[in-house]
Amino acid sequence: MNLLVTLITAGVTFGTVLMYGTLGEILTEKSGNLNLGVEGIMYMGGAFGLAGAFYYEKAVGAAASGPVAIVLALLAAFVAGCAASAIYSFLTITLRTNQNVTGLALSIFGTGVGQFVGEFMRLSEGGYVALSNHLKDSFAAAIMPDFLQGIPVIGPILFSHTVFFYMAVVLAVLMHLYFTRTRSGLYLRAVGESPATSDAAGINTTRYKYLATIIGGGISAIGGMVYIVTTAGCVWNHEGLSGVGWLAVALVIFCIWRPLNAIWGSVIFGAMMIMYLRVSLPFMPQQLYKILPYVVTVIVLIFTSMRNSRDKQPPASLGVNYFREER
Amino acid sequence: MLGITKSFGQVLANDHIDFSVRWGEILALLGENGSGKTTLMNMLSGIYQPDEGRILEDGQEIYIRSPKDAYEHGIGMIHQHYKLIEVFTAAQNMILGLDDVKMDMRQVDARVREICERYGFEIDPSMKVYDMSVSQKQTVEIVKVLFRGANILVLDEPTAVLTPQETVKLFKVLRNMKEDGKAIVIITHKLNEVMEVSDRVSVLRKGQYIGTVETSRTNPQALTDMMVGHAVSLNIDRPRYDNPQTRLVVEGLTCVDEEGITRLEDVSFTANTGEILGVAGISGSGQKELLEAMTGLYPVKAGSVRFLNDKGEEVELIGKTPMQIRRTGVGMAFVPEDRLGMGLVGSMGMTGNMMLRSWRNGRGALLKRKDPQALADRILEELEVVTPGTEYPVRRLSGGNVQKVLVGREIAIQPSVLLTAYAVRGLDINTSYTIYRLLTEQKMKGVAVVYVGEDLDVLLELADRILVLCGGRVSGIVDARTTTKEEIGLMMTHLGGKEVNG
Ligand SMILES: Nc1ncnc2c1ncn2[C@@H]1O[C@H](COP(=O)(O)OP(=O)(O)OP(=O)(O)O)[C@@H](O)[C@H]1O
Ligand SMILES: [Mg+2]
After folding, report:
1. CATH architecture of the domain with range B2-228
2. Are B197 and B172 in contact (CB under 8 A)?
3. ipTM of the complex in this document
4. CATH of domain B241-331+414-502
């Protein structure tokens, strides 16, 4: 029991990172754009997010307040992600380059930029970038009141998490409502299903594609930042981040493009990723644990395609560029 | 529309076309496949931008830069390949792009129902589009245009997939709208519809404007000549084959679909060499399932399909894979409803698409290009496919020309049994008759042809015998030379009728 509780709690910590990556990519893919650059975007988010908090603290010194640092880190990561996916949008939507190729390029580009910024901070500060313990604590703090956290079993599972987790859950719910209840959500889904149809109906497909892709990129980037300031302990750690973006892309499929599924989906994925630390079996090599999420994704794919339900398919125009006069 | 010109790369689709439609009239736009009808109308609805030319409304020049502009000018269009979001409900499809309609789905549903009731259509607003049949989808398109309201209405081949009854309803709606003073343009290849519903007819040929005539002062023959540019004969020659032999025996064929609904029940008939067996029936009466079951694409619950070759040997086809069936010589020119999706690869040229059927003939890993190339050239010439060349991606061809490539390829395999369904759907008159001629040619070579068709007049003229399906069962088999349209119509709706062995 105890083991399960710690596994879930740890799963939530890592899952929060994935949840941002996945939610962002769901938004992007709903518009019909398959942005494979999530890996790069999350790198950039991590580096710029850390930089935001770090230079803020450097500027104001000991007076630095936790909440302000959180907001700045969020903003910096979000803006970096938006910028990266704006490049992707311009290339694929306006210039109509191949989405897969562009996404892969962005992936390489983003990891490079993230690395550069991270290393630059490290070197220019003389070998080590770290925030003060005071800020570290405010990033990692559990925000729920003590009496809730104190409830056995439920407390640690539901109430012992950072502000980032609860924000992600709220975001998932908001996105769900947006897709299912609002006009603009309906239009966005229409664009992802068939840009030609939406265009003929008078919807500005270009605008929807741009906005969804750029904002989606920004959300994904927050995931990278969350990783650096929670799991990595506010130190630039490119090794831990590597592969997270790809996992998020797989998770989008696992969630069959539904934001609400991302909440539990990312916790499961998160738990699977750290399982080797908690329930290691002596004869199982670590690497085998790490392929678990991908194996599960493949199984989900097989099941959804076997059930053949039309509502569980990817947006019909995913990965295809649209040009009005082409047919 | 004045002096409209539009080209796609090397294709000149519209060449200085002057075109006008008046308030309160129904104008039919006629032309062969690829003559530029869809292109011209797409410029009106904002999908394409003209390279040259002006568009005037009530004498004032208007600029249509996007579909939204068109909507604001009251122009509504039903597109040739329907534009609906498959995973949305009918009602959700209606409100796309309408920012001023409240997002209250119950209210929208009610309005959709009201329109349906007023005009006599039947659709369920909360039904998902992917659950609909093709004709239901078309109905949704029509209701969508009514829902959105339009003063100028363009319909691009709206009747291609409708049943005759639905067509009648549509025409009633169009006449009502005309009474209201709206301007309506309808594109269709069915000349009887043109004669029935339109006030004037404008004709395009190879991207050029030929002229406009009053419908009351013309006839189908004259219109066809205008479209094609020279006289064509609208008669189908039906020679008799001397020595018909039984080629295919179908007995007690029963098929059940995934949901357990019986699609075909106890269907028995024979197909003979040198004979065209017509298959008639209201759409969805099991025609598609019948052909698919015979070629191994549809699971069969009971019954047998036996193939008799020239030496009199029998081969049972049920239980064989489509590839094995094909090898015994049963060819199927099934023209799917979704032409590009199921039959052809859109981004490849004609030659490449020919190869999809013949690649097995090559030796080793290398493909043989010469034969497919020759075949592509032959189809291009015989069916007069409008394309810059055999390497031009078929996706860019006009709707009818895509169809020609598909049908041409299937007929060219020279099978001993040829199954076709809706082979002329969306084809212009001239090409339709070419296809009829080709089918008759095949028949005279001793091929057993099964032809599933919608147009009863054509079935009566083309086929030797007609099998009438009604709700998945054989309503009767009649001799096409002696039967009447009324008799078949009755058999289509009621089981029964006399059995004639031809
Ligand atoms: N988007 C496009 N890209 C390239 N070529 C095109 C495009 N649209 C149309 N064409 C070409 O323009 C010509 C006219 O096509 P159009 O679709 O207007 O014909 P149509 O009269 O509607 O024929 P059909 O009766 O077969 O529908 C064709 O040769 C077609 O290949
Ligand atoms: Mg057309």
Report:
1. 3-Layer(aba) Sandwich (3.40)
2. no
3. 0.84
4. 3.40.50.300
